[in-house]
Design brief:
Blueprint lengths: L4 E5 L4 H17 L2 E9 L12 H28 L5 E7 L3 H10 L4 E6 L4 H7 L2 H8 L4 E5 L1
Parallel strand pairs: 1-2, 1-4, 2-3, 4-5
Helix pairs in contact: 1-2, 3-5
Length: about 150
């Protein structure tokens, strides 16, 4: 199968950068388009049982955007070092598997490459597996990169 457009979500973690490096290698091999995204929650406190003020929200959004842009800049540097053109996008909304899948569908992605921390047992039960959620909810091919 020849891939035309690869999506790699990054969050600033080392495992997401490992997934980006793998996506870059695949993009280079198939001479295809590569897009990196970073998710930013528009209202991370929507389900909270406390009140927060506008300045607290503004501070959160500024920091979250700064971190997302930093992660995307790092991936851009990795791609550029390999001679690969990359598009980047900060995706605002819910930080969820659904957001990744919706973005992939909008961009006509035919492969999602993402990292997984490989949690097991109680850690997986309490923290979940973001990569496994994406894998289970999409019909697109998903390549999971482990640490």
């Amino acid at each position: 199968m020849a891939y035309q457009h690869i999506l790699v979500p990054v969050d600033g973690s080392q495992i997401s950068y490992s997934a980006a490096q793998q996506a870059i290698s695949i993009a280079k091999a198939f001479n295809c388009q590569l897009t990196a995204i970073s998710l930013v929650a528009e209202d991370p406190f929507s389900g909270a049982d406390f009140y927060y003020n506008a300045s607290m929200m503004k501070e959160y959004l500024e920091e979250a955007n700064k971190n997302a842009l930093k992660a995307l800049d790092h991936v851009t540097q990795l791609a550029t070092a390999e001679g690969i053109s990359i598009q980047t996008q900060v995706v605002k909304g819910y930080v969820s598997s659904e957001t990744i899948i919706e973005t992939a569908e909008k961009l006509n992605i035919d492969l999602i490459v993402m990292g997984s921390h490989g949690r097991r047992g109680f850690k997986k039960f309490f923290l979940g597996s973001f990569a496994q959620d994406v894998l289970g909810q999409t019909t697109l091919p998903v390549l999971i990169v482990k640490e």
